[in-house]
Amino acid sequence: MQLTPYLLILTIFLQSLTRVLSQALPNESENIDFISTFSNQADHSFGDEDYHQNFFIVIPKNQNKPFFIRIFDPDTGGNHDEVKDNYSKTRFSIYGGKGCFSAPEAKEVYSKMNINTGQMITSKTFDHSNKYDNQWFVFGPFNPKEGELIEEMEGYIFRITIEGLEGRNGNRYRLFISENHNNNLAIEGLNTFTYKYTFKLISKEQSVAMLYPFVNKDVVSIKVHTFDFDNDGTILLYSLKKNRHKVKHSKNNEWVESTHLIEEEEKNTTLNIQIIKKDNKDNDMAIYITNQFNKPVPFYAIPIGGSTKFRYKININYFSK
Fold first, then answer.
1. Is the dihedral of CA 244, 293, 48, 119 positive or negative?
2. Which of 131, 23, 127 is nearest to 69 (CA)?
3. What are the pLDDT digits (tens) for 2-17?
4. For 282, how many CA atoms within 13 A lie in the half-sphere containing its CB?
């Protein structure tokens, strides 16, 4: 089919937008306010019970240009943060090399994870100083070949490990993977993912955050685990076969889980989890998903294969007189 000039321009625009969004964490389509990592003396009821998380970057095999990891507002005591003291610290570390992804510990979602798998390339600790408040800090440049080559992903994998150190503050920040030191310039074919996500929802009534877990051909059921949602609305699951399936959501300072069977049509597709907020209060929460073997299921910044929508079936009955 030959595209009209309008459709051609629209297609190019949408492809470009997808590339840009895949570099941003949280990405725009997730509609999440900030990633959250609290310092290790913070109350669990603030929304973070293990004070760390990991994000994985997939750099395409054919990418030869160096890249940068840009962090927006990495300080612990500024405009966007949950401030409880003036001595909290957060450490950002970048890992590559063998084991940064392939080691089983690297994909662990629980709090006793060994966060030192792979080779640390660089690290920096931020405190409450306002030097980077509402500003960007930049790691890099990085050689793509410093990552761990994972053939089935057709790329080199890097890990960003974020740890909340001493203190009680909640650090809220954003990330962008860029070809440029000074600007957010997307890298063709890049994607990012995580296995456990701790974040701040947009403080607005009826705001809808969206997450995109990918289930492969071997998954027959999933458990959705949520922490400290504060009973702040509704969580729904969508797929080719599921329309507004309710996910159990947590109250304050508790984990809950719900099990959902995966049908044949849903395998090798992206699910859509929608978190619909009830109130306009601040709310940080955590979520992860496991399969029937208790192995974590990844959330991708950009849904693999696109965001899956429920497939309606329309039955039409014809009556003859």
1. negative
2. 23
3. 444 444 333 333 344 4
4. 14
Q: Which two three-digit tokens encode residue 223? A: 């458990």
SS3 content of the chain, % helix, strand, coil (to 5): 15, 40, 50
Q: How far apart are CA 70 and CA 54, in angstroms?
A: 15
Structure tokens at 318: 């014809």
Closest CA to 239 of 313, 160, 296, 308: 308
Phi-psi region of 294 (alpha: psi -120 to 50; beta: other; left: phi over 0): left
Dihedral sign for Cα atoms in the order 77, 117, 192, 259: negative
pLDDT digits (tens, 9 = 90+) for 141-179: 999 999 999 999 999 999 999 999 999 999 999 999 999
DSSP state of 106: G
Q: Would you place residue 19 in the very low, low, confident or very high pLDDT band (cuts 50, 70, 90)? A: very low
- The DSSP call for residue 169 is P
DSSP E strand stretches across 239-291: 245-247, 255-261, 269-270, 272-277, 284-291
